[in-house]
Amino acid sequence: NNRNSDSRGALIVLEGLDRSGKSSQSSRMMSYLEGLGVSAELWRFPDRSTCVGQMISSYLANKSDLDDHTIHLLFSANRWEKRSLMETKLRTGTTLIVDRYSYSGVAFSSAKGLDIEWCKAPEMGLLAPDLVVYLNIPPEKAAERGGYGGERYEQLDFQRKVAHHYQVLRDPSWKIIDASLPIEDVEKPLRDMVLDCVKTCKKGKTLLNLWS
Ligand code: Z5A
Ligand code: MG
Question: Which CATH superfamily is domain 11-202 in?
Fold first, then answer.
């Protein structure tokens, strides 16, 4: 492990619809980075291991009902409870590959009809990703993939709305990959984007806050 004290890790976020391949690509990325000797961890939101995460998990499994604003704030709180650990990891040189982040929070809640600015507000002050990769797939194609349909939100008409709201949220810095391609063809450009970002952060790119 040859990190030096002033080099930091990169905050890399994968976003995309249900079944776009975020989890598959995140874990493949971890093996790749490990092989290269890059210090990295795989994180995901929601983090279902915390108390807040358990409330979210029960909501997603349709075991509890919550007002749309309430669940939105819980998703946000679930990121806030990890913020300081996230900053420590990054500043001590660990790269974080994060499977869903604030963009999921805003895209899903605004797809339900909540005001987008209201949705963004509680995310302000969380750490801004150094790289956002959007795994782009038509909702119909994603729905054909395995395991679709178990949880709340896993319905085609709602996924179409979410896709639209991701487009509203998308900014020019996002990298877009065609996620309907075979796994290896998604992985290849993703590797290049990630390595490039890790390199830039190592050189001392400033860590910023989200939307503030
Ligand atoms: N949510 C929210 O509302 N607010 C928030 O703030 C946050 C989340 C953070 C739970 O998320 C829900 O919470 C989610 C958003 C909402 N609801 N929805 N929809 P989650 O992350 O726990 O679960 P998920 O993202 O819904 O779904 P997922 O199943 O984890 O999708 P994925 O990670 O993108 O896909 P995958 O597991 O890698 O792949 C799915 C399948 O496709 C699997 O069988 C793979 O083998 C296959 N696959 C993957 N890539 C390919 C390619 N390239 N070709 C063919 N087949 C492939
Ligand atoms: Mg997943």
Answer: P-loop containing nucleotide triphosphate hydrolases (3.40.50.300)
